[in-house]
Amino acid sequence: MKASQFLISTLKEAPADAEVVSHRLMTRAGMIKKLGAGIYTYMPMGLRVIRKVEAIVREEMNRAGAIECTMPVVQPAELWQETGRFEKMGPELLRIKDRHERDFIVQPTSEEVVTDIARQEFRSYKQLPRNLYQIQTKFRDERRPRFGLMRGREFIMKDAYSFDRDAASAKASYERMAQAYRRIFDRFGLRYRAVAADSGAIGGDLSEEFQVIAATGEDAIVYCPDSDYAANLEKAEALAPRSDRPAACAALVRTPTPGKSTCPDVAQLLGVPLATTVKSIVLATDRLDGAGQVAGTQIWLLLLRGDHDMNEVKVAKLPGLDAGFRFATAPEIVEHFGAKPGYLGPVGLKRPVQVVADRDVAVMADWICGANEEDFHLTGVNWGRDLPEPAVVADIRNVIEGDPSPDGKGPLAIERGIEVGHVFYLGTKYSRAMNATFLDEAGKPQFMEMGCYGIGITRLPAAAIEQNHDERGIIWPDAIAPFTVVICPIGMDRSAAVREAAETLHDRLAASGVDVLLDDRGERPGAMFADWELIGVPHRVVISDRGLGEGQLEYQHRRDSAATKVAASGIVDFLQNRLKP
Amino acid sequence: MKASQFLISTLKEAPADAEVVSHRLMTRAGMIKKLGAGIYTYMPMGLRVIRKVEAIVREEMNRAGAIECTMPVVQPAELWQETGRFEKMGPELLRIKDRHERDFIVQPTSEEVVTDIARQEFRSYKQLPRNLYQIQTKFRDERRPRFGLMRGREFIMKDAYSFDRDAASAKASYERMAQAYRRIFDRFGLRYRAVAADSGAIGGDLSEEFQVIAATGEDAIVYCPDSDYAANLEKAEALAPRSDRPAACAALVRTPTPGKSTCPDVAQLLGVPLATTVKSIVLATDRLDGAGQVAGTQIWLLLLRGDHDMNEVKVAKLPGLDAGFRFATAPEIVEHFGAKPGYLGPVGLKRPVQVVADRDVAVMADWICGANEEDFHLTGVNWGRDLPEPAVVADIRNVIEGDPSPDGKGPLAIERGIEVGHVFYLGTKYSRAMNATFLDEAGKPQFMEMGCYGIGITRLPAAAIEQNHDERGIIWPDAIAPFTVVICPIGMDRSAAVREAAETLHDRLAASGVDVLLDDRGERPGAMFADWELIGVPHRVVISDRGLGEGQLEYQHRRDSAATKVAASGIVDFLQNRLKP
């Protein structure tokens, strides 16, 4: 490819709304162009990256036995009504009426359509297992689209769906996909982690996220440097403390803490460690009558150590809270505690409140909490002596750095990640809702066991950039670079020797299958180098009259701080060596 | 590829709503699956065909210097409001409101978006010419979607857009695309014609349709077997008659024709050739006042020979009718002619009517038309004698078989075609509407000259089938077959020799780049052959114990009536010879 036949369009300045580096660099490198909020044209330079991502994903999906099809972008609402998602999903589901006022949606994902195909196609156990996938445009009407391709509204996703005759087979299908994902992410050349994720109502451990490691990632990833353990923060278990509760030493004291409504403020005022304080979080659950009216409300008090944060996913699994909960309103709090938030605690409750103590709180002695009186806290609080033992003790917190790993292998570490893939065992959730059955050996209908597997095709390049960039621009891994090698001739318009050397090298590399671009635009060296450093092509060869006079070219990897002289005669071998995976 | 790892799903019966053979066969062959009216999933077998179509198109577009990008499916209405198409387009434009009640559309095409890109990117004459294209999902909310992929609502289109500095350069870009299209359609292995099409308001001859020839096609294609002339019916000129008008011979007679309200009925009743009758078509044009109210109406009488049909495209170009016209209402007709339709004519008009005679009518003598009186016609009508010479004489009819070719090379023939591609010179229509300018050498802003170029990627396979099928199923050209070769082993489960021969042949062909499928499903020969004849794989090799005993395999092309025995040792060479383009 020659630059003069391609569209290279770099910008000095990033758009004002570009908050993250990948958005800034993809825009400046001319890879994407904004059309509307969260809606981008994939410009030629960006599309090359996307196509490389797609090709790797397609190859590995096919290798793993998945079969490609393409489902419609615009889908009739009927199927989505069968599963109830047409009503249940919020405004992120883009709803349309056609010319006949019939309801349609723009696909955010395709469980309904693929399950409809499966129930028509897979009638016998002999036809299972099957895995269908597509690489296709999706739309989610995000409330606040941002970060360029990272959280767009329109995007490209690879979504695969497996259908199996039983749970054991479904889990084997799941494992095959999880392995394919590892191969895919290995091939991308990115640092990533496969982390256990919460599998919601389905239960079990069969849900993993593939997170590209990046300091700017939105997700917290928990891992054990001494073992294979890795999970997302939602999922990671905080082990029960190994030590027993110490004996009570201090007396219960009502202590003035004027204006100090947070644990850190109280700890600072009293000169004690934050870990001796307990924070109170008040939730509510509503009981509905037959007509859907609220017939009664239960108030819950969750107790967490002052240096810990609540984990909503864990809380949502507790009996009594697993059908949905909300934060209590200010009037409800005052009614039950007699005080406003910031000064609440579990001691001396007059109204019935369900107390849930985090496992770490349950082993504390001599702790500090709100006195249920404005501007006062209690110190020296002790379970059993000052208040009843907690009715429920559970893991309801996020782990923190240094917590013991659930596999017992050492302290946990936390880093940031960007979710680019997810494998998920679905069980019979969709097949039951849509009556997708097959006949087993006995001729009896059985629900299909399903799994679903996504990769954010257009998010991946953004994640790759968040991980691989410097102040000059993008640094692509070879596998997904828009071009692998760029040839920068200096003075090509003046020097026949340079032109000939550049074109010969271009043709030889192209003939041997290298994805090479010859920059024949005639830009000056500074501007030309700046462009390619911004665009992030990993391998650069500079050809100049001076170099050719010495029989040499200059090679520089995008990560190198200086160029290497290479004999002109050996450049193809040299590059092919560098390009070996 | 092995059949057991693929999804093969054939049906004995076609769906009741499948009116055309391609729809029936694509559904029965498991290539498409209907999700809603005009909305289909491309199943694995069908997607393979679509991908081959895409690959050929992409290769030739790149070869012609076009650059691929991908524009969004969901597009903000603003750009469509700039050109006025958001309002002007009918309900086939699928309109959406997002969660913030902002207007969007699902792209039916992308002139607005690409022109928006061009006006941002191409600021200088040095950056032109450029051609950007995409292969992307489109949606048109057809009033009556039908014929499967032939007239779907959601479909895949390749749309390219060229930007040039002046008309001469734009025409060169147009020609480059027209040539690329010829290469593309040649490579598909289909019989097709590139026909001149009407270029609407732009004028000139720079619009061609690429029509796949098929008896079931919706379009009529006019061509001259003795020359290169080809045009669609809308465009093809009916030459002015070479002969002068004969002298009047007959007297004008008011002739009773009770109940005979059509030219054929009248000709039959009177025992005269249909070509001696003249049909009257009454149109109306409304003049609007400043407030958009109808301030006046002009009635038009179009006269065509009884065996000719009106050509609305030609009519719409006549002065006075070129701003839009409608058919006159029944009251308007009665008011101006004193009679109802079926008995109208140009003789003895009492109210002002603008008469337009087709060129063939203008040279008629002793003709027959309605008497403006129910159940009566006039015979022996003659221009000048019985009524004034026509105010306007023009070509307003469709050509018919046998008409002289406009290039003077012989009589015209007509066949049916399916439009699968269109190249179109747009001029500055969109660049003016959207103020897409570049700076010329003098630093002066100039509007870009544009062209647009479409190929119906998902319609193409349907057109290929309309042209290439028999009673047993589809007959794919090699270039776009889902598989090029199918290996059908007989008794593979019983015979190790058959299995080994089949697998060896599969592996050898696959290794040499042949797109081969081994049918290892274990179906019985009859069912297996029926499947592949339905699916339409062009080359079949049958391997059996009996044949292997003689050192032979059986080869049969899908069009062959019988198999050919081929030495097992020479089968790969044999096939590669057959597969040469």
UniProtKB/TrEMBL annotation, chains A, B:
It holds the Pfam family HGTP_anticodon. GO terms for cellular component: cytosol. Belongs to the class-II aminoacyl-tRNA synthetase family. ProS type 1 subfamily. The keyword Cell membrane does not apply. It catalyses: tRNA(Pro) + L-proline + ATP = L-prolyl-tRNA(Pro) + AMP + diphosphate. PANTHER family: MITOCHONDRIAL RIBOSOME PROTEIN L39/PROLYL-TRNA LIGASE FAMILY MEMBER, PROLINE--TRNA LIGASE. InterPro entries: aa-tRNA-synt_IIb (IPR002314), aa-tRNA-synth_II (IPR006195), aa-tRNA-synth_II/BPL/LPL (IPR045864), Anticodon-bd (IPR004154), Anticodon-bd_dom_sf (IPR036621), Pro-tRNA-ligase_IIa (IPR002316), Pro-tRNA-synth_IIa_bac-type (IPR004500), Pro-tRNA-Synthase_IIa_type1 (IPR023717). It comes from Ramlibacter aurantiacus. HAMAP family: Pro_tRNA_synth_type1. This is Proline--tRNA ligase. Residues 38-477 form the Aminoacyl-transfer RNA synthetases class-II family profile domain. It is an enzyme of class 6 (ligase). Its main location: cytoplasm. Its EC number is 6.1.1.15. GO terms for molecular function: aminoacyl-tRNA deacylase activity; ATP binding; proline-tRNA ligase activity. It is found in: Cytoplasm. Keywords: Aminoacyl-tRNA synthetase, ATP-binding, Cytoplasm, Ligase, Nucleotide-binding, Protein biosynthesis. GO terms for biological process: prolyl-tRNA aminoacylation. Consists of three domains: the N-terminal catalytic domain, the editing domain and the C-terminal anticodon-binding domain. Catalyzes the attachment of proline to tRNA(Pro) in a two-step reaction: proline is first activated by ATP to form Pro-AMP and then transferred to the acceptor end of tRNA(Pro). As ProRS can inadvertently accommodate and process non-cognate amino acids such as alanine and cysteine, to avoid such errors it has two additional distinct editing activities against alanine. One activity is designated as 'pretransfer' editing and involves the tRNA(Pro)-independent hydrolysis of activated Ala-AMP. Homodimer. Gene3D superfamilies: Anticodon-binding domain (3.40.50.800), Bira Bifunctional Protein, Domain 2 (3.30.930.10), YbaK/aminoacyl-tRNA synthetase-associated domain (3.90.960.10). Transmembrane segments: none annotated. The keyword Nuclease does not apply.
